Amino acid sequence: MKLYYSPTSPYVRKVMAVLHETGQLADVELITASGTPLAPADELRGKNPLAKVPALERPDGPTLFDSRVICAYLDDRADGGLYPAGTGRWDTLTLEALADGILDAALLMTYETRLRPEDKRMPEWVDGQWTKVERACAALTTRWMSHLAGPVDMGQIAVGCALGYVDLRHDARGWRQGNDALAAWFEAFESRPSMAQTRPPQG
Question: What CA–CA distance (Å, rounded) separates 146 from 93?
């Protein structure tokens, strides 16, 4: 298999963490393919019509894209148990969706400041995205701590990757304020080998 990836993409990090957790890293060839909405990666156009990473090229089917699809596929391939059976599966999927919502908002904030000309930027837009991150972190603290403290699943991995990206790009905004339990969980979870070995480079 071939994984088209960028080492700074938090969505790619989710996939890489799953590869580590399920022991499949050696089964994948990593191909760098980074881009932005203004300059999509040309090498991805034939693999993913959205020209976004991650994209997983398989020998037995069409290329998979969207991190949630790829993570579910890899977990199923390895029988990894990161998406539990039964009613617990829906909690895991909901938690993963919440984490991806944090990523979506934080990435839009990054694009606003890095890609949009300064005279066209909307601070109100950035603040609106940050409000989503704040609400999500508050929900994690008040509703999801017992789940985060349980057996490792895809929801936990997604939350860890999301908070890691917020630290990377928006640390000054202080998501930890008022979320002590979540901050303590994140500090411990980041020490897992799958997280430590996929930590994005600074810059």
Answer: 16
- Residue pair 162/10 in contact (Cβ under 8 Å)? The answer is yes
User: What's the CA gap between 129 and 133, in Å, rounded?
Assistant: 7
Interacting residues of 131 by C-beta distance below 8 A, sequence separation 6+:
none
Q: Report helix, strand and coil shares of the chain as percent, to nearest 5.
A: 60, 10, 35
User: Model's pTM, two decimal places?
Assistant: 0.93
SS3 readout for 102-117: HHHHHHHHHHHHHCCC
Q: What is the DSSP letter of 201?
A: P
Residue-range definition of the domain harbouring residue 124 = 88-196
Residue 26 maps to a domain: yes
**What's the pLDDT tens digit per position in 132-190?**
999 999 999 999 999 999 999 999 999 999 999 999 999 999 999 999 999 999 999 99
